[in-house]
Specification:
about 170 residues, 4 helices, two-stranded antiparallel sheet, 7 strands, alpha/beta
């Protein structure tokens, strides 16, 4: 899995985790939120969708840094299928990221101690009470929470509806 960072360039998921741990170690008293959000945009004849998954490290009151993975998926014909694929990609990315955060890193670029972070992951969903997606809110939110993550929907889901959305359109 490769991610793009506006400030750090191309990174593996292991490098993203190392960057997060390094930032946390450099500012031990700061409050952080770790956010994963996925958005999609139909392309062409509507059977191809561009997906973008964003990992956002929000340092409360001091901005954020983010990392985005973008790819194209074919044969997605329904909005329901896209919404559940977005949720699945966020769950998958969250799980893999947590594994890297728990292990820590021994890369000399990031001299940080091992250990998992003590903050929960928020999964931001591009669904809300208005529009066609409202019918799946309960089901998708329950799925996210059953996997141990906090679920956020619109208008509180900027990880998906703003950050990831920006990368589905280009």
């Amino acid at each position: 899995m490769r991610f793009q960072s506006p400030t750090r360039g191309q990174l593996s998921l292991e490098d993203v985790a190392a960057d997060i741990l390094h930032e946390r170690a450099a500012n031990p008293g700061a409050e952080y939120r770790l956010i994963i959000g996925t958005d999609s945009q139909l392309k062409g004849n509507g059977s191809t969708a561009t997906f973008a998954t964003a990992i956002i490290l929000h340092k409360t009151g001091h901005g954020a840094r983010y990392f985005v993975r973008k790819f194209v998926h074919e044969h997605l014909y329904s909005l329901r299928q896209r919404m559940f694929t977005e949720a699945a990609l966020s769950i998958q990315t969250s799980g893999q990221l947590m594994e890297h955060l728990k292990v820590g890193t021994h890369d000399s670029t990031y001299p940080v101690a091992q250990g998992s972070p003590d903050w929960p992951i928020e999964v931001h969903l591009d669904i809300g009470e208005r529009g066609e997606t409202k019918q799946w809110i309960r089901e998708i939110v329950a799925w996210i929470e059953a996997n141990g993550y906090e679920a956020r929907i619109k208008p509180n889901s900027y990880g998906a509806s703003t950050v990831a959305d920006r990368y589905t359109k280009h």
